[in-house]
Hints:
The complex is a heterodimer.
Chain A (H helix, E strand, L loop, with lengths): L2 E4 L13 E4 L4 H11 L3 H5 E2 L2 E2 L3 E5 L2 E2 L15 E6 L2 E2 L6
Chain B lengths: L1 E5 H14 L5 E7 L7 E5 L9 E2 L2 H13 L2 E10 L8 H6 L6 E6 L11 E8 L2 E10 L4 H14 L1
Parallel strand pairs in B: 1-8, 5-6
Antiparallel strand pairs in B: 2-3, 2-5, 6-7, 7-8
Amino acid sequence: MAIEVRIPTILRPYTGGERAVEGSGATVTELIDKLEVEHPGIKERLLENGEARRFVNIYVNDEDIRFTGGLDTAVADGDTVVILPAVAGGAVSGF
Amino acid sequence: MVLTIDRATHDAIIAHARRDHPDEACGVVAGPIGSDVPARFIPMLNAAMSPTFYEFDSGDLLKLYREMDDRDEEPVVVYHSHTSTEAYPSRTDINLAGEPGAHYVLVSTRDGADQGGPVDFRSYRIVDGEVTEEEVRVVDSYADDAITDAATQQKAEH
């Protein structure tokens, strides 16, 4: 069994249109590094200067990784990882 | 390009924007995948509770997308309000737009529009940083078969 990674519409160009792909690794960081091998370019959309992007949400088994150790959050076979772009905006400038 | 939206949903978006003024209001109108019919109005909490910024709570966001997935829906409309500027996407709106298939609806409650004056209601496509305004067509109701057709087609594809 692998880790199921659910891909949002905006990142499906990197996965050949697939809504979900398989991943592996012991942490979210490792998972993203392995995704990058299969789906070049995707890492840049998830990370910025080695940190998770402010407006991309990553959930491991329904928990936002911001609350579970960030990119160091452990993952294992059978887990489900969901990636969702934040729905955000507004009149303010600077983002 | 055109956004076709029923009167009840159109009015519900405006009512939400007025209710949350002076903070920005936000939400989604979901519809069957591929239908382009905004059928299910889902007002969301603005977790930023700000007059110049909106953001769905991350837990709410996950729940919303899971629910749409289960119902074979997608976000047909993503809406929010500007409360002191025009109903046009800001640079922030453009940078953060993450649903290339959605109609981005903006309403403005400035100049007393929150009190019952006319509310600007405009719709855009935002793809790869490009904004294209589109016509908004408000209808009394959707043609009876618009939603059923899409649902049938969806099943056939599965």
